[in-house]
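Example S7 (structure tokens).
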């Protein structure tokens, strides 16, 4: 039975049609038409409802539209599916959909999403509401993000994150970009090697399958080619040059690695490419016609003359073990002949040897000519000493010979001066050379007649203190002895002589003294050695000497010398104590007349006393620090430099007090002394000499003046990825 909808309704609700079909079980086939509209301009819905007996999962709908408004279709989908829609004002279109096959509400909704895609719109969920917006704004709003499964037929917007395991995600972006529409989004996150894709579900599903097909590990088989005549590093370099010249025509995705220890080339990649490169490597592994080669190796850090001597010893050992005749510096070039000599002006080695021996010698040079670490050694020498002297006593003398009275006295030097010295000074003032130190109180009578007497009381105390802190520091290479001296040449009198000449009536006097100069100060001699675990073994000889301040006079200068000679082990930056001395001594003395000096009170006239106490505290510390590179050396240098410059600038604020307008001499700022950084040209470290023409044509080992080599295009990439096990150092620009 057919039923016609009222003309006042432009679009019949599909839900009403479903209800009608369910009640009657018939299939209405009527087209909605505006009253008065011509049949050719039919617009509306022809919902065809299947009979109830043929429905398994609910009613099936056969919608047909011709030039229907998009808003009316949204209303019909909402009634059929029960979904709530918010329509963007820009979502306007005239829709035509022809359907001959019944579909379920779910399939009808998928068809609705396809209609939106055709007209440039998309439905995105937002809670319990679906928003219909232009697809240009789809990637800016939340959608079905990170679903567990992406449908291969749905047109909904989904966002998926894919983990790429075997290839670079960034390299896949330009490959997959043409497959993404303008409103879609494709980006790579290199740190985690993942891809972020936002697009319609069916396209995301397609891209996922493509990525899984691409994301496969390469051919894991590895070919090891043992070379007998050629150098593995040189063969890898030649193949690399060929691959760069062909700009990817050969060897794409193939990696070559040179193993210097076994002189082998390792090949990995696709089997066909490996087979072609294996044939090329085998062809290059042919003996040279001359049977040897000559190389000039410029050394960076080592002394060429010393290295040449060591290489000759190494060569003699190799030839002795093989039963050959040692080849010295003057050996002739013959079958298996080897010559080694050094050029001091350029610090270079000139080596002529067969390839096998050449590789062995160059391997030794590579491991010897390296940048050695440096060690900053800082020593701290602390010495605090004190000395106290006390002298006290009485001297007296009695001369009663003129009155027939007994003459006598008690004479004992007190602090180096006695009553006899004072009496001679009184009688002969011109003989006075120095005034006695300390306190002297004297009484007496000195006349021609009568009884003469004299008495003195002397008391003297001396205190001397010494406080020394020395911090010598020095930087030296690993396992290299270094010495620093901060000392004075102090003269010491070792003898004197007076010669009376015989010529003339008056003998001429020619006195002289012998003097020996000795170093007084701080001397540090150290030899550090860095071990494999970063600790430092140091052989140390430390000397600290100084002039002592003494309270009593001496025949010459007195020096205090402290010496340490030891071998210690310290960690990097660790402060350790090398040794020290703590001494405390007390010396007292007394000179007296027997028996009389022991009489209480009165005995003070017959004795003198002195006491002396010395106390010394000495400690020596040392702190080594490893400087591995130029950055650490520059940091230490800048710290010391700025410390001294700060002292200069802080002294009277840089002004000369007595000279207006003048400034204190000051070190320039460290920034002014820093050299300008200029790009260094990379030049080879070893230059082969007299190489055969065929080998030079294929792959010259070194171009001393590469004028004919064409510049590589920036966009061109070599077809073969080459990795060498050890990089050869470049030759310095100027020696």
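Recovered sequence:
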């Amino acid at each position: 039975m057919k039923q016609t909808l009222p003309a006042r309704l432009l679009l019949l609700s599909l839900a009403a049609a479903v209800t009608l079909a369910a009640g009657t079980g018939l299939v209405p086939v009527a087209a909605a038409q505006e009253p008065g509209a011509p049949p050719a301009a039919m617009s509306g819905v022809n919902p065809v409802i299947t009979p109830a007996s043929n429905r398994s999962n609910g009613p099936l709908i056969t919608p047909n539209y011709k030039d229907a408004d998009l808003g009316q279709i949204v209303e019909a989908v909402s009634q059929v599916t029960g979904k709530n829609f918010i329509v963007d004002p820009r979502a306007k279109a005239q829709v035509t959909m022809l359907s001959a096959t019944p579909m379920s509400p779910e399939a009808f909704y998928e068809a609705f999403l396809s209609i939106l895609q055709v007209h440039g719109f998309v439905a995105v969920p937002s809670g319990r509401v679906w928003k219909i917006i232009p697809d240009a704004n789809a990637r800016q709003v939340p959608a079905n993000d990170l679903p567990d499964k992406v449908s291969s037929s749905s047109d909904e917007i989904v966002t998926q994150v894919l983990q790429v395991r075997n290839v670079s995600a960034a390299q896949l972006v330009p490959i997959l970009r043409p497959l993404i529409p303008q409103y879609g989004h494709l980006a790579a996150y290199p740190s985690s090697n993942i891809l972020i894709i936002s697009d319609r579900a069916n396209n995301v599903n397609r891209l996922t399958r493509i990525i899984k097909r691409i994301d496969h590990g390469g051919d894991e088989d590895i070919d090891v080619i043992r070379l007998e005549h050629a150098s593995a590093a040189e063969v890898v370099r030649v193949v690399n040059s060929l691959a760069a010249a062909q700009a990817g025509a050969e060897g794409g995705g193939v990696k070559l690695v040179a193993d210097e220890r076994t002189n082998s080339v390792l090949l990995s990649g696709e089997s066909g490419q490996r087979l072609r490169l294996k044939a090329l490597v085998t062809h290059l592994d042919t003996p040279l016609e001359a049977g040897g080669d000559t190389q000039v190796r410029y050394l960076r850090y080592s002394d060429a003359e010393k290295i040449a001597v060591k290489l000759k010893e190494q060569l003699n050992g190799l030839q002795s073990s093989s039963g050959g005749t040692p080849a010295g510096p003057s050996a002739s070039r013959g079958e298996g002949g080897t010559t080694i000599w050094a050029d001091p002006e350029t610090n270079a080695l000139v080596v002529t040897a067969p390839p096998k021996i050449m590789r062995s010698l160059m391997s030794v040079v590579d491991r010897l000519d390296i940048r050695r670490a440096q060690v900053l050694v800082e020593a701290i020498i602390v010495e605090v000493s004190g000395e106290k002297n006390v002298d006290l006593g009485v001297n007296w003398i009695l001369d009663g010979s003129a009155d027939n009275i007994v003459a006598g006295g008690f004479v004992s030097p007190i602090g180096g001066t006695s009553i006899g010295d004072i009496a001679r000074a009184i009688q002969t003032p011109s003989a006075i050379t120095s005034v006695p130190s300390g306190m002297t109180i004297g009484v007496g009578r000195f006349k021609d007649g009568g009884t003469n007497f004299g008495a003195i009381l002397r008391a003297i105390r001396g205190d001397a203190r010494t406080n020394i802190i020395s911090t010598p520091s020095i930087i030296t290479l690993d396992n290299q002895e270094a010495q620093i001296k901060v000392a004075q040449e102090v003269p010491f009198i070792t003898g004197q002589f007076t010669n009376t000449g015989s010529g003339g009536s008056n003998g001429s006097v020619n006195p002289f003294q012998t003097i020996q100069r000795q170093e007084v100060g701080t001397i540090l001699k150290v030899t550090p050695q860095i071990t494999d675990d970063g600790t430092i073994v140091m052989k140390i000889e430390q000397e600290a000497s100084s002039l002592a301040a003494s309270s009593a006079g001496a025949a010459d200068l007195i020096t205090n010398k402290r010496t340490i000679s030891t071998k210690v082990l310290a960690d990097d930056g660790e402060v350790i104590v090398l040794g020290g001395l703590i001494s405390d001594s007390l010396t007292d003395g007394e000179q007296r007349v027997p028996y009389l000096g022991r009489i209480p009170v009165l005995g003070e006239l017959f004795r003198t006393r002195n006491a002396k106490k010395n106390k010394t505290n000495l400690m020596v510390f040392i702190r080594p620090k490893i400087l591995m590179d130029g950055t650490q050396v520059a940091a230490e240098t800048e710290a010391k430099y700025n410390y001294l410059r700060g002292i200069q600038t802080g002294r009277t604020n840089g002004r000369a007090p007595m000279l207006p307008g003048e400034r204190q001499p000051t070190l320039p700022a460290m920034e002014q002394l820093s050299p300008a950084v200029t790009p260094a040209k990379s030049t080879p470290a070893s230059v082969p000499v007299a190489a055969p023409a065929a080998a030079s044509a294929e792959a010259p080992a070194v171009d001393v003046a590469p004028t004919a080599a064409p510049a590589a295009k920036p966009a061109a990439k070599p077809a073969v990825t080459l990795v060498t096990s050890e990089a050869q150092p470049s030759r310095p620009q100027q020696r």
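Notes on this example. The radius of gyration is 53 Å.
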